[in-house]
Amino acid sequence: MKAFLGMGLLGSNFVRAMRRKDIPVQVWNRTAAKATAMEQYGAVAFDSVADAVKGADTIHITLKDDSTVDEVLAKAEPALMAGAMIIDHTTTSKDGAIARTTAWKAKGFTYLHAPVFMGPSNALDGSGYMLVSGDQDVVTKEQDELSGMTGKLINLGPEEGKAAAIKLLGNLFLIAFTAGISDMLALAKVFGVSTDDLQGLFDSWNPGASLPARLKRIASGSFEQPSWELSMARKDAGLMIAAAEEGGGHLAVIPPVATEMDKWIERGFGSYDWSVIAKDNL
Predict the structure, then answer these.
(1) What residue numbers bound the domain in which 65 lies?
(2) Residue 117 half-sphere exposure toward CB, CA atoms < 13 A
(3) Measured distance CA(254)–CA(247) in Å, rounded
(4) CATH number of the domain residue 10 falls in
(5) Does the pTM of the predicted model rise above 0.85?
(6) pLDDT tens for residues 21-45?
């Protein structure tokens, strides 16, 4: 028997996917109606988290944050089956994942952190990416369980908390990437460029294809041979900022990046590749 705690967009679709495979699953959610809604798919809903985990050898979790995970597991603990496996898909802190792994092991249970890069449709279809790290004996034991939930299971090795760290780093990039799109749309509005025109640009030009090479170059720490000089990139950023200010557009990302560029130009790096602004983070 499996239990699933947290019937948000991801959790509910994970449960639906399990039921498509006729896997028995008991569910709980703080807002009971979300758990009850899973009964139409054959899940068994409980108002009490302790009741939901009774008889379950594996408990999956998709909750909000560290404190919520700790709170819910504390309420579930008295009813946990001896030696139960706890698999947490919540995006949490690295320290929190490490602490829970240690604490639950001391209590005779196994806690495994397996966060995901998935949308709700991925959870339902078994596509997307799931990360895992930690005790490799545990990972190997649970590999079939996890692989059945995702298109690709990425094993990051034995370091506890590494999956949590990589998940946050990936989310940081997604946030910055999306904020960059927002800035682009703001300036496009000022210029009278349509979203269809932008879509046409990216249909022909895929800057994402250069990401691995760009990361490799930055990580090398070599910035002396520029493909785009910092001073020229700063000039372009200035044009963007000036146009946005004149046209009433709001840029969230470019102004602070321009400020960082100015710091590096003042330090004498104006003729270096503009990615030198990442140098201090290496």
Answers:
(1) 2-158
(2) 19
(3) 16
(4) 3.40.50.720
(5) yes
(6) 999 999 999 999 999 999 999 999 9
